[in-house]
Amino acid sequence: MRSSAWRLAAWTSLWIGLHGCGHASAGGAAPAAVPPAPPAEIDLTLFLIGDAGAPAVPPDSEPVFMGLRAAAASVPHAVIVFLGDNVYPSGMPDSAAPTRAAADRALTQELRVLHASGARGVFVPGNHDWDSMQPGGWDAVRRQERFIAAQRDAHVTFLPGGGCPGPAVLDVGRVVRLVALDTQWWLQEGPKPQHPASSCPADSEREVIDSVRAALGTAGARHVVVIAHHPLVSGGPHGGYFGWQDHVFPLRNFKSWLWIPLPLIGSVYPIARESGISRQDVSSATYRRMRAALDSAFAGSAPFIYAAGHDHALQVIGGTSARYELVSGAGTFGHHYRVTALDSTRFARSASGFMRVEFLRDGRARLGVMIVDRVGHAAEEFGLWLN
Fold first, then answer.
1. In the chain, what are the domain boundaries?
2. Residue 86, by phi and psi: left (phi above 0), alpha (psi -120 to 50) or beta?
3. What local confidence, expressed as pLDDT, does residue 14 receive?
4. For position 262, what pLDDT does the model report?
């Protein structure tokens, strides 16, 4: 009887493994020759890094930060956008909490990247910044905003402020408009600023949609880059894509070292995720509602780029509601998910790193996907002229 059970488990694992091969981790090859951007013609270099809130200790030892700092310091007019989940695991706790020192340390390391490189910085919030989606999330996200404001650095800002959904508009350089959204506002249960009892410029779904349309419609010749935490589409687990390891070793989703095989039983977790049990997944009804709302806001004047994190991978996807959808959520070394290439994927890689977009004065833009090794060296793995 025991032998039969083990045979069943083995055959189940084999089947899931073969099934998973259809969704193998992607690493799209870079074009044979992608010429670099002429340095003298670059108006602005935008760096995109998400889910960087669990950097290595001691300070200044995080490989991704080392690579980002060096890359941003080497170019003039650099802007670094932290795409949410800036503090793991539960955002910025109260000053009396035992986890406050670790949260301060994480956020301080991100700020040190900005100060050391001389880059301008923008932080947008993610679901972990909202106290891991707990009822105290609104307080946590405002504490993070106050911590950043206390640095008294006019070149560093937290957008949108006050736990508001946005959009917050920031024109940078001559050719770029950043439109910052707090997508967790849409997904958050519990207290958050809502009509009619809030002071946010937009505090209902309809007002947010109308304000996004206005931000896009008044951009003129500027390239609009929407910055948020949650992607509209993704080939990672939040997008509904799981591999055989998720079915056989489901406990690794909670602790990466828990290699305990649970065939059959283990499939319950990814199947539940694919069915929309979590608001943080594209498959959930709440997430789908948010995505449909943003799609409608983008319909009249599509953004050039929609940039997000959330899934811990690096993805370049040909967009539908936006021209390009970038997922750059691999900002902590070694914390990356398996990723699947979708039909519209131009590049996908399960690796640590960040993205760089160089905007030229003539309106052209060049994307570089930067992979970082364990000693902090960043190398371009994929390059693409976006227009």
1. 35-240+282-385, 242-280
2. alpha
3. 36
4. 57
